[in-house]
Amino acid sequence: MNGIVFQVASLGGAEFRMDEWGVDCVYSATQKVLNAPPGLAPISFSEKAMQKIKNRKTRVPSFYFDALELGNYWGCDGQPIRYHHTAPISSVYALRSALAVVAKEGVDEGVRRHAENAKFLYEKLKEAGLECFVEQEKWRLPCLTTVKVPPGVDWKGVMEEMMRQGTEAGIAGGLGPTVGKLWRIGTFGGNSDKTKIEKVIKLLADTIKRKSNI
Questions:
Q1: pTM (2 d.p.)
Q2: CA-closest candidate to residue 203, choices 125, 101, 116
């Protein structure tokens, strides 16, 4: 196996070429860049990975997560379909509509837009006196930016006040060991827009001034 790629926050917004790069398994989600409702987890296996799955010597512990049963249910193996689960039809149709939006723009154009707007976001952060948590730009994700919480700032209070200003201005905090150290700003899909980015950074900068303990 050449690796499993977690692409939840970047599918459709960052360059990724599974076959060309020799990736054996990639899984994602629908609620980020695709802007579809949450609840589905697109997954893809290489031929090499499928052979590994088909030739495993022990049964999959969970029937629900058996890739062969799932593949059969979705008509991937050419065999008569066996019942596996009741599909969330509404979510599937919602995903279809979201993918139509992606197709209309074009995958490559969408990737270019996310990269361009990420650079715009970095510039606006710098103008506001804020720093990216990931120092080297080449390691940053164009769809999700982490921002250092300045010393003496009530990081949670900043988020709460921004949320009260409206959903377009919402940001999130760090997770695990980064709690209290950073904020997360998602520029997924339709939110990868210069007007929206400028609005969020201005509100963030203004709120920081009011919530500073210095």
A1: 0.89
A2: 125
Q: What is the pLDDT of residues 13-28, one digit of tens each?
A: 999 999 999 999 999 9
If asked whether residues 112 and 207 sit together in one domain, one would say: yes
What digits encode the pLDDT tens for the residues 105-149?
999 999 999 999 999 999 999 999 999 999 999 999 999 999 999
For tokens 């052979």, what's the residue? Answer: 51
In terms of residue numbers, what domain contains 128? Answer: 107-211
Domain check: are 124 and 206 in the same one? Answer: yes
Separation between Cα atoms, residue 203 and residue 170, nearest integer Å? 10
Q: What angle in degrees, to the nearest 10, is found between the helix axes of 194-211 and 107-127? A: 30
Surface-to-core class of residue 85, CB atoms within 10 Å of its CB (0-12 exposed, 13-18 middle, 19+ buried): exposed
What are the two backbone dihedrals, phi and then psi, of residue 145, each rounded to the nearest 5 degrees? -115, 135
Residue whose pair of structure tokens reads 């709460």 in the numeric block = 160
> CA nearest 141: which of 8, 3, 1?
8
